[in-house]
């Protein structure tokens, strides 16, 4: 059996380490830099807007700003069931929906004659949850446009522009003579 000399083992490990290290130390020729493009300065991050808050309770912070429905009264969410006395006409329904909304119904001649006198449909006895604007448009129907006067806080309805009339397609000509053939074994 051959005897391993410690020097031989040490030489083998050294050669292996040198081979591994020389493979990692390869050098490449430096490349010429690509055309230099002038970099724009980094934009400043948007500074967050300061929103004042107040603490309610231990874990609740509330913003000190009006809600969207407080700025735009027609955006307030309502859930309304018509009372028994408001089930007669559309104008009764409109007035009930507008109670405590901050708006009142204006009386235009065309709306009073055509819209307000219509009976209130059973489908409109409960409205919501929806915005006040959507409830008013639902009660009036698609033939009417909602117009608001924010100065006097009045809600008015005007007739919507009439859609262009579509001419009905002409009916195909009817065959003048129809021939009937009796089936064998079947009596009329």
Automatic annotation (TrEMBL):
Domain of life: Bacteria
Signal sequence region: 1-25
Source species of the chain: Eoetvoesiella caeni
Gene Ontology molecular-function annotations: kinase activity
Keyword terms of this UniProt record: Kinase, Signal, Transferase
Organism ancestry: Bacteria, Pseudomonadati, Pseudomonadota, Betaproteobacteria, Burkholderiales
Name used for this protein in its record: Type IV pili sensor histidine kinase/response regulator
UniProt keyword Transferase present: yes
InterPro entries in alphabetical order: Integr_conj_element_PilL (IPR022260)
């Amino acid at each position: 059996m051959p005897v391993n000399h410690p020097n031989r083992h040490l030489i083998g490990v050294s050669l292996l380490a040198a081979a591994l290290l020389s493979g990692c130390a390869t050098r490449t020729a430096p490349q010429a830099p690509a055309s230099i493009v002038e970099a724009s300065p980094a934009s400043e991050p948007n500074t967050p807007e300061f929103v004042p808050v107040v603490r309610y309770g231990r874990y609740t912070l509330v913003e000190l700003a009006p809600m969207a429905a407080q700025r735009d009264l027609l955006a307030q969410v309502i859930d309304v069931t018509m009372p028994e006395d408001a089930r007669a006409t559309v104008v009764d329904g409109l007035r009930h929906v507008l109670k405590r909304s901050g708006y009142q119904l204006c009386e235009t001649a065309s709306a009073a004659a055509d819209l307000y006198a219509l009976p209130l449909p059973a489908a409109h006895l409960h409205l919501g949850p929806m915005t006040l604007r959507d409830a008013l448009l639902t009660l009036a129907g698609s033939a009417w446009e909602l117009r608001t006067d924010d100065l006097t806080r009045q809600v008015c309805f005007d007739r919507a522009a009439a859609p262009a009339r579509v001419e009905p397609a002409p009916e195909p000509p009817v065959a003048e003579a129809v021939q009937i053939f009796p089936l064998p074994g079947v009596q009329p």
